[in-house]
Amino acid sequence: MSDQPNGPDDTHQEEDGDATSDVDPADLYTLEEFIAEEDILESFVDEAIVGLKGSLEALQRSSLNRSGPRTYKKRPREESDQRLVNDYFSENPLYNDKDFRRRFRMRKSLFLHIVNVLDEWDPYFTARVDATQRQGLSPLQKGTSAIRQLAYGTPADLLDEYIKIGQSTSWDCLKKFAEGVIAMFGADYLRSPSTEDVERILHINESRGFPGMLGSLDCMHWHWEKCPMEWKGQFTRGDKGVPTLILEEVASQDLRIWHAYFSIPGSNNDINVLNQLSLFINQLKGQSPQLDYYVNNKQYKLGYYLVDGIYPEWAAFMKTVSLPQTPKHKLFAQHQEGARKDVERAFGVLQGRFSILRRLAHLHNRGVLHNIMLACIILHNMIVVDERENAADILDLNESARTLTVLPPVFSHGVPEFADVMRRDSNIRDRSTNKTLKNDLIEHIWEKFGPK
Predict the structure, then answer these.
(1) Does residue 262 sit in helix, strand or coil?
(2) b/e per residue 11-30 (b: at least 16 CB within 10 A)
């Protein structure tokens, strides 16, 4: 019963199925076309297999290189730590304080203070025991590794022979050391001058013939060798020819750096950098010390910085006289250019103390370079303060009375009024004040240092 068709539709379906099964493949394509299609498919499969095998082999090789067994070096770090203590930190060290100062760029007491503070700041600098119950690197070893890289600009693996510290660990020490120095000492040693600092700076500069001078301002370039290829046009300037990072700073006569702005692309000039500076932020807010000084019997209330010829003629800047002709102008140019060398000397001492800034920047990470630069500046200021002579001021009866007063800033709560900010900005950029002050300084220096 089941083999019989149920209706006319079933009969038609069986007839269509018989017709389909009777189709001859030779009617669709020839034998040559069939063989050609088979060859194409086989060649495609062969190419896919070869490519897959190559990819698997390359993946296997990279996996072996990346996660294969590492070469273990049994570094005697305990003996190295004891040798380091015997050489520099024991009661009777092999190398005296003069050797320590030359190799660590600072006195031993300052270095131990930094290491102790970093030890409390982060457990990374704490002496710990590893999984095999073996003593790890000591804080002295990590601090010495970081300082030697900053001071001499040496490769990280060069310290392995003496400190017994691996290359990657040495790099980590440098990065953490820079972060710790910025975090723990940046607020005290990379700040705007206080009222007492401003008074001391103004007193020193008044004796040099520049009442109201707050410091010297200039830029330096750091060659960035590992600058990414797509950034090289942005960080390269024509006169340099190589990618650089710009540091602009303010330095005083004692070589202390009071303001630093770093990591600006090297294609900028001093004017472009000036437009990005935060140097006058406190003055615009009305939170800087209030000055009152006299030059050539005229009163001024805005301090100024000595700069070179590219800077604008603002009231906050004082440039030299280009091509001086008269004896007064020649004497002023001589003293202005001599006093402006404070910032040049600060650059030279900074690079001399920390040779890593004098060599090529071999890091790709711009943020790490920024931390290294700021850490070097903070350490430089710490050394300046630590080694400054603390002799008491001696009264000189032949010295003329001071013609300046410095008052602490008047802080106001809330956001400053926009009109006050614009008024202070206009005072900073005032060209007429710059011209008047320059003429008064020329007369003042001629009266003070000119022929009697």
Answers:
(1) strand
(2) eeeeeeeeeeeeeeeeeeee
42-56, 230-244, 360-374: which has the minimum mean pLDDT?
42-56
Q: What is the pLDDT of residues 127-164, one digit of tens each?
A: 888 777 788 899 999 999 999 999 999 888 888 888 88
User: What is the signed CA dihedral for 77, 80, 84, 87, rounded to 10 degrees?
Assistant: 170
Sheet of 257-265, strands arranged across? 257-265, 244-251, 213-223, 304-306, 317-318
Q: What pLDDT, in 10s, does the model give residues 254-298?
A: 999 999 999 889 998 888 888 877 888 888 888 888 899 999 999
- 151-169 b/e (C-beta count within 10 Å ≥ 16 → b): bbbbebeebbeebbbbeeb
Residues near 409 by Cβ (< 8 Å), separated by ≥ 6? Answer: 195, 282, 286, 287, 288, 289, 290
Helix or strand holding residue 248 (H, E)? strand 244-251
Among the listed residues 425, 152, 224, 219, the one whose alpha carbon sits nearest the alpha carbon of residue 315: 425
Query: For residue 68, what pLDDT band results from cuts at 50, 70 and 90?
Result: low
Burial of 277 (0-12, 13-18, 19+ CB in 10 A): middle
Q: Please compute, for residue 285, the number of CA atoms within 13 A of its CA located in the half-sphere on the CB side.
A: 15
In contact, 265 and 245? CB cutoff 8 Å: yes
CA gyration radius, the chain: 36
Please choose, from the candidates 216, 203, 219, the residue with its C-alpha nearest in 3D space to the C-alpha of residue 403.
203
Residues 210-241: tens digit of each pLDDT: 999 999 999 999 999 999 999 999 999 888 88
Residues with Cβ within 8 Å of residue 428, at least 6 apart in sequence = 280, 283, 284, 302, 314, 315, 316
Q: Is the pLDDT of residue 445 over 60?
A: yes
Judged by average pLDDT, the poorest of 104-108, 198-202, 299-303, 415-419 is: 415-419
403 pLDDT more than 70: no
Q: From CA 304, how far away is CA 298, in angstroms rounded?
A: 15
Q: Find, among 236, 262, 237, the residue nearest to 369 by Cα.
A: 262
**Collapsed DSSP state (helix, strand, coil) of residue 224:** strand
Nearest to 373 by CA among 204, 196, 249, 197: 249
Closest CA to 309 of 367, 250, 269, 252: 269
DSSP code at position 88: I
Q: Please, what is the end-to-end C-alpha distance for the chain in angstroms?
A: 142
With beta carbons less than 8 A apart as the criterion, state whether 208 and 296 touch: no
At which residue do the structure tokens 């303010």 appear? 250
Enter the pTM of the model: 0.80
DSSP state at residue 309: T
